[in-house]
Each structure stands twice: as C-alpha cells, then as structure tokens.
Amino acid sequence: MNLVGLLVSFAVSFAFLVVAMTIHEFAHGWTANLLGDPTAKHSGRLTLNPLAHIDPFWTLLLPLLLFISSSGQFVFGAAKPVPINYWALKNPKRDVVLIGASGPLANLLMALGIALLMRSVAMHPLASTILFNLLLINVVLGVFNLIPIPPLDGSRILMGLLPDRLADSYSRIEPFSFVILLFFVWMGLFSRLIWPVVDAIVKLLLGGGG
C-alpha cells in the first residue's frame, strides 16, 4: 500500500477510533460523577464531543506513527485521561475498579449494539463494512484497555483489587509504561495475545460470523 493509500485508510480507522475513545472517556466521567466525583463534569469532560477528549500526542501523533510503522495493520491511541479526584469518591478502593471497568464495558456494549443491528437489519455491503469496522475498533479498544499496564484501565482495576502495599509497589512501573506498551505492540504480542481474544468476542457477537 502506498503512502496516499495508507493515509486514506488511516483517516477512516482514525474516525472509528475517535468515536470509540469518546464513548470510552464519557463512560469514565459518567461513572465517576455517579460515584460522587464531579471533576470530569466541571472540567468539561462529561461530554460526547470528541474535541474535549483529544490529546495531541496520544490521540493524533501516536495512532499515525503506529499505523505507518505497521504498514496499516495496527492503529491505536488514547484520549486525554478523564480527571478523577479519588478523595471525592464514596468508596475509593471499590470505585476506582468501577471507573476503570466502565470504559472497556462501554466499548463492549457499543459493539454489542452494533452486532444486534447487523444481525437484525438487512443492509448494503458498504454499510455492513462500516459497522463491522466500528464494532471491531470498539472491541479492540475495550480489550486492549484491560491490559494491566498503566495508564490503561486494567491497571486501575488491578490496583483497586490489590492490597494497598502491593498496589503502591505496582504503581511505580507507571513511568516506564509507554516503553512497555511500545514493546508490547512492536514485538507482535498484540497479535499473539490480544487478537485471539478480540476475534473470539467478534465471532460471539456476530453469531460465528464476521
């Protein structure tokens, strides 16, 4: 695929990624607000407007670099983290788990909704392809975020479940998290560990199809 083709393909994939990330971050903010912390609401992050969640590096530059370096095989990024005041939560130890899980859960629920639509409504092949790719990126985002590496949501969930001393020790890997994630992607661990899970979920949602 030439550079122009890569950029066009990236633009389409990026649009799906932004939709999925917006749903993801809104879920974090909504859950935190529900549990007593209105920080996201007061900072303008409790919104479905994608512009409120875009980070120049994590949302724009990183996906483009990953997409080009993988010859169009992989695109991933992140939004600005939703600000959370853990001391405002009703039960911080429990609530951090719920907030962390809410983003991936929102993506998987969105994928489920798309799958139900695809299975129940006859549609043009182009519409089917668009919906399938939106479903796929939501599943990818949901599953990838469950990896227990900071700042991914899996790390929030794990730290909320661990005893305080272990959670504190575990949190110290955060300064190295970006390097760990890049190693994870570029060593092909995504294909070997994450993709089989994504593939199984997609097949389950579509009744064995896809």
Tell me the total number of β-strands: 0
Largest sheet: none
- Average pLDDT for all residues: 87
The percent range for strand residues is under 5%
Determine the number of helices (DSSP H or I, runs of at least 4 residues): 9
Shape: globular
- N-to-C series of helices and strands: HHHHHHHHH
Low-confidence stretches at least 5 residues in length (pLDDT < 50)?
A: none
For the record, the count of structural domains works out to: 1
Find the structural class using helix and strand composition.
mainly alpha
Helix content: 55-70%
Radius of gyration: 17 Å
3D structure, described in words:
The chain is mainly α and 210 residues long. It has one domain. 68% of the residues lie in helices and 0% in strands. α5 crosses α9 and α6 runs antiparallel to α7 (164-171). The protein is globular, with a radius of gyration of 17 Å. The mean pLDDT is 87.
Output the keywords.
210 residues; mainly alpha; 9 helices
Concise synopsis of the structure shown:
This protein has 9 helices and no strands.
Topology:
Elements: H1 3-34, H2 39-42, H3 56-69, H4 92-120, H5 125-144, H6 153-161, H7 164-171, H8 177-186, H9 189-205
Helix pairs in contact: 1-3, 1-4, 1-5, 4-5, 4-6, 5-9, 6-7
